[in-house]
Amino acid sequence: MPADSWNGPRGQAWVTNRSLLDDIMRPLETALVDAVAGARRVLDVGCGTGSTTVALARRADAAVGVDVSEPMIAAARARATEEGSTATFVRADAQEHDFPAAGFDAVVSRFGVMFFPDPPAAFANLRRATRPGGALRCLVWRRPADNPFLTVTEEAAGPLVPDLPVSPPDAPGRFAFADPDVVRRIVAPSWHDVALEPVDLELSMAERDLVGYFTTFGPLALVRESLDEPTRARAVEAVRAAYEPYVDGDRVRWTAACWMITARA
User: Fold this and answer.
1) For the Methyltransferase domain, which residue ranges apply (predicted)?
2) CA angle at residue 121 from 188 to 115, to 5 degrees?
3) Which of 24, 96, 173, 217 qualifies as a cystine partner to 167, CB 3.0-4.6 A?
């Protein structure tokens, strides 16, 4: 996904909906922070609006977040100021940014490493930024079949919106690291002891936020403004109905089926 796409409406959508996304992703944030307990200097790759970086800074001496999105980095810096956090943030492409050599004890990422245009080069660069013996801990999505919640929109809206964008499975995007063999080929040239551990976490949101969620994020959000009103209304109705199996009273609940990529510098 081009970096420019995160510096326009898409990045701003993440900023506007920061509280909703923070709440949804909290279990994933906790898993990452716990995975590097004891690390004193931590780099958070694809940090977004900074929730995980700030959580890391509560335990570490230094936590640095990096992201290509200027709107999200600005929001992350504002968050750190508001919370009196020591977390710092860099607006840069982690694939090529000149980090301090061996400057970190651990590198973490919550769904941030799946979008690199050249993943082997990116992981090599992150390795150079990590001290010998340092840890890599990255959460990425497993297969679409393991994450049916993530494909509801495209499956329900696809018949109504023929041009609905769908990322090829081998392209940068949310399922780019679903295949463990692909991940090992990418990471192993620059890191040692590469392993993938399945992680399944229960996520949820308020039911009242569901329509706003799938019309703001995901494939329907990318084409919503180009649709005529009747088509848009039919698509929203179809997608909302397709999410019904996940609705539990006033909450929407689903399982995030992830890999935790672990490796050693």
Assistant:
1) 42-134
2) 95
3) 173
